[in-house]
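user: can you give me the structure for this one chain? tokens are fine.
assistant: on it. calling the predictor now.
[tool input]
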Amino acid sequence: MFTHLDGGGVGSLGAHDSRRALETTQLPVSDLSTIWQMSDVDCDGRFTRGEFVCAMHLASGRRRGLEFPEELPQDLIDICIAVEEAAGG
């Protein structure tokens, strides 16, 4: 999904494309806002591939009824970093 939305090959998604992707989860806006705040680790208003993976993981858990963690778990941070490294970021 990330590659499709990043049609220009920039390596990150702007707010508009990120929002479109998050809206496909059909979660309430308040949940999407929380997901955005937790996943945009560098607070630049864009999602890198790793941040996108993090966001979609949080959304998937929320759709299954899980509560949001107080902060991103280290294992999720590690996965997102690994995704970035694998993508050459």
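assistant: here you go. The longest strand covers residues 12-13. Residues 22 and 32 are 7 Å apart (CA to CA).
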